Queue: 2 jobs
Job 1
Amino acid sequence: MSEHNQHSLDHHDEEGPHSTFSGYMLGFIASVILTAIPFWLVMADVLSSRNATVVVILGFALVQILVHMIYFLHMNFHSEGGWNMLSLIFTIVLLFITLAGSLWVMYHMNANMMPGMMGST
Amino acid sequence: MSHSTALPAAPDSFDFLVREEHHVANGTLLGFWLYLMSDCLIFAALFATYSVLSQSYAGGPTGAELFDLPLVALNTSFLLFSSITYGFAMLQMQQGKLKGTMIWLAITGIFGAAFLGLELFEFYHLIHEGATPQRSAYWSAFFTLVGTHGLHVTFGIIWLITLLVQLRKHGLTVPNRRRLFCLSMFWHFLDVVWIGVFTIVYLMGSMS
């Protein structure tokens, strides 16, 4: 791919991530399986325990997100000199703080604002 | 990578000035990736809000009563198919085939539109059943989260149509390839967000 475009302002942008047919198909088939199993688990009510189902489907979601990141978004440790991965890790840290922090704080706030507790003061 | 030794310089002319500054290639793609990461934080806030309010029905209808999981599964498959067809468009682009790129891009757009149509139908159905955004904190959080994702898909489709017009006018030029890469990231990112939506909102919501 040595196509030189004299009018282009930015020669560096010619090369994006290289993708292959087998990579996309692998990601797609994995995604279909990783989507079908959680839907089946919930719709057919396979596991008796609700908590177990939640943990399992969240696990499937995490694996599927990883599959999409690798096969569709072409994430790796060396694209863009590592800046892609660094910004992703930073975002994941913030995501974790936002989600876990909100749930943790609000759970306790709810517990402390129960009508019963307010009545007892 | 930071030293410029590739230039055949004469031995007596030591060049301490780095003429061509080393910068990250594909600056646009990195910048767009950073935008997606900031978008990710918007969704993180919306997911957190939804999770906190996941039981706040205010005596109104619950998600478990109203969600139609087969419909959501169909919608999920639409989005998944649109991801792989966008992948095929990128493969056609790599081979320099303009027509193939445009055809697969159009198919991607159709899948995206089908997804949106089904989502709007679902919203209409929910509102008809009394689950409006005003009904309870739960439904406010639901419509904000799922609606924001749907809005992203809407803008993705507008972008896709714009790109189709540009491709037809200018062909697979370097700027157009760059735009295709950016939309590719955007589109696949939306599919990643949807994994969180169908797992946390629909599947977990249907169990409680």
Job 2
Amino acid sequence: MSIVEQYRTKVKELLSSGQVKMVIGYGAGTTPDRRRPLFMRSPEDADKMLLDNACIANLSGYLVSEGLLSDEKRVAIMLRPEGVRSINILAAESQLKAEQIVIVGFDTAGEELRAIEGSEAKDFCALIDSLKESAPLQAPDPLFERIVQMSPQERFNYWQEEFSKCIKCYACRQSCPMCYCRRCIVDSNQPQWINTSSHTLGNFEWNIVRAFHLAGRCVACGNCDRSCPVNIPLRFINRRMGMEVLEVFDHFPGMSESQEPVLASFKKDDPETFIL
Amino acid sequence: MTRILFADKLDNCLERWRSAGISVIGPVKKSNSSGYSAVTKAAEFDFNLVLPERSIKELFFPQSEPLMRYEIKKQEINTSEFKAPTSERIIFGVRPCDAAGLAIDDPLFGWDYQDEYWFQRRRETVLVTIACTKADDFCMCTSLKLTPDSEKGSDILLRPLENNSGWQVEELTDRGREAFKIIADLLQESQEKAAPTAVVEEKFDLEAALAWLKEPENFESHFWKEISMRCIGCGSCTFLCPTCHCFDIQDEGDTYSGIRRKNWDSCSFALFTMHTSGHNPRSTQSARWRQRIMHKFNYFPGKFNLNSCSGCGRCSRQCPVDMGITETLQELSKLLR
Amino acid sequence: MSEPFEPKIVAFVCTYCTYAGADLAGTSRLKYAPNVRIVRLPCTGRISPMFILKALQKGADGVLVSGCHPGDCHFTHGNYHARRRWTVFRALLEFTGIPLERVKFSWISAAEGVKFAEFINTITEDIRKQGPFDQYKQLIRDTESPATL
């Protein structure tokens, strides 16, 4: 049985038995290579469900949309391991209760997709542990390496050119499961810390603040990078932040729902070589 | 016999226009993103793009534009206005849907108040449009009763030759003729045939959709919730749209000095309608998406007798969750049947 | 002749240690460079990275952030939280091309008036050598807004 059939059956079961009120998954998109989020509420909806390598988006952000979870009923969602990590962070930050979410896990294994055993976030702990182990061994990205090697001036220019394209549509923010603030800092005007205008300074400030707010929270699902309509390589900034928290604080975001957020915790012997 | 502009003459044309004090802008792809930007050499043009990712509107209605400077002193308040820059320019290689988009917004910017920031730029720009010979899955100009070689809004219409070596020249307006007078001797008479225009299938029944939108009871229809469930509320559709024109006024600075700017705003943002009290009349994303569709296909036509959409398809092409006007109007036009 | 370059530096300090240290420098009649504008905050834990961006936005050539030594925080661990935040924010600044020589961090206690005066002198000279923060000032000019610092 292929994974699609296996999971269609599972979705039908979940919905017809009333275990969950909705399953969030993937359906066909406008073009053959596109997938779009699909909200399944009746067993028949499962026939529209698709699951293949084109299903990349991390859908966990939909779980925190207003009112969805407030009736305490369970919701199922199809997630890759990064998505499960997002659930752990959202739970750790008290945005949802992990036991209210039924996870239908999958991952790419070579050419194929494989199902991942488990139904709640806590069932995936071993898998996420192994992800942490392999995180420092990530394949190097040539452009990322090039940026790291640049002089500060070159790096400044590189990012200015990238950020000058920004149109402040906030697709990066809206597509990010971690950007759930009711009122974003850039939308606040008393005080107004950063410029809302989309001139290069305003764009720079916005992108810095976005990256900082995600430091130690980003699971590198790539939603922001893919959704950017002007193709700013946001993945590099997130990656750099991820490296920093892993190397310095041994923090890999989204290990479990009881993991302390890296910037809301500390150790007395945290390194401080740069402090004079 | 038609007049032809051969592509190998393009550098000479650029030179001529430059000497006449006219700057040239065209479709350019750089740092992994495409838009209309300044061009100095013909090699910088990218005519192979079906459509630049960013629309032409930013050249007439910039995403952020200073309007006024203020300075408050003990005894006086000084203000000075920013004017739209005056510079003659030619946009070469505009897509017909982008040119049509500008024509759609003209009545809007000149309706109760003549927006000089827009019209100054409109007056000083010549739009040289190239008819489309290819389209992608998201193009939908025909559904909006336009065509891949539509003349709407253009000053010159170029039709690519079959062998791709140049373009047939059709002068549409006096402004276009004026600009092409400068390069008249670089054009050649020739029998070369134009390549066939792109085939863009009609994706929805516009009349049916418009009729449905006009029915007052459909404002509260469950349809809106269903169709917009996956909308994440970013502004990429509105900001890439050649006809979306909403803006916000923002003061940057402090109590004593600063400037006032006009910034793009989007009806998809929750903040767009947020009151100071905290109340938000469009409190859900479905209400915001409904507003966007209603504005384009009900309110705007009601006021200006025009649909506020030129069928470029950018909203669907670039949507992070694969939504867009096409899907919504497709579903809408099915509802009546 | 244009005037010689005088760096503008913004210092965010906690009131219990570094501000008291600055006070001590003053009452001890220690002379130090007048280039620093001090912003006093209840604790380094209150110093958001947004403050640093704001200082740069308003035309600062350098920013320094200072508070109690680890273990000395009036609120017991505000500075531990701040330290983590700085570590990450510094990495971000570096990666986006802001020279780290322009954003400095230090621990200065209420007893370290001398350290404060020396620190201000060194950092001022350091930034004077580097010159005005032109790359950022170009961004500010592009916005047409005045750099009011």
